[in-house]
Amino acid sequence: MTATVHPLPSTEVPVVPPRVGKPWDLTDFEGIVAGVRDGLDLEQIAAVIGRRTNSVPAQLRKLLPHDQRGAHGDVARQLLAEHLEDPNYDWRAELARPAPARPIVVEQRHGFAGFERDDLIPLVHAVLIAGSAVPEEMRSEAVKIATVLNLWHRIEEFRRDHLYQRPGMEMSFDEVTREARQWSEFHNGSRLYGASHPWSEREYAYF
């Protein structure tokens, strides 16, 4: 029987490029520029400057104008090659040029969305108790924002306190609490009522 001889696993230690882990300096960028001018690819450039191949593209992009730094891999190398064909292209100036400031975007909010959460509590209550005195669209938006932001519990508490603290209020705290809950349920749609509004000014003068 012939014995099968298996090769021993390789004990060769991978060669680490000499400049791995060291800060990038002008010498590295000069090497990139020289390599691009000589038509070398990214792997060859990395070998020349003593860096890992995957670290070169990000540094190469720093030599491009800011509006082209979104290019990746060989596309960035080709762009730099085109720029270097121009004898007036100053890659050192591009390298030193600070990134443009990000534009400040001011979000414009209108209607109920323009108010802070705490300010919406009395505002929604005021709109809803105004009834037909305000447009139906506004009342609908008030209900919508209260539902989306889950404000009904706080609006209910606001209404309870609003009623209980009114001068001449004869209802007990428990009665006011119950009525505030029913008022909230009516407006947020969690309870179905008949066609007439149960909290009309005719029935409840403190409305």
Q: What are the salient characteristics of this protein?
A:
mainly alpha, 207 residues
Structural class: mainly alpha
What would the principal axes of the Cα set say about the shape? elongated
Helical proportion, percent range: 40-55%
Please mark out the parts with pLDDT under 50 across 5 or more consecutive residues, or reply none: 191-207
Q: How many DSSP E strands?
A: 0
Q: How is the biggest beta sheet arranged?
A: none
Q: How many structurally independent domains?
A: 2
Strand content: under 5%
User: Can you give the mean pLDDT?
Assistant: 83
The helix/strand series, from N terminus to C terminus, equals HHHHHHHHH
The radius of gyration over CA amounts to 36 Å
Number of helices: 9
Give the N-terminus to C-terminus distance in angstroms.
Answer: 105 Å
In short, what is this structure?
This protein is an all-alpha fold. The protein is built from nine helices and no strands. The longest helix is centred in the last third of the chain and has 16 residues, at 173-188.
Polypeptide structure, described:
This protein is mostly helical. The protein folds into two domains: 26-96; 111-188, no CATH class. The chain is built from nine helices and no strands. Helix 8 crosses helix 9 (173-188). The chain is elongated and about 95 Å long.
Topology overview:
Blueprint: H1 26-37, H2 42-49, H3 56-60, H4 73-84, H5 91-96, H6 117-130, H7 136-148, H8 152-164, H9 173-188
Helix pairs in contact: 1-2, 6-7, 6-8, 8-9
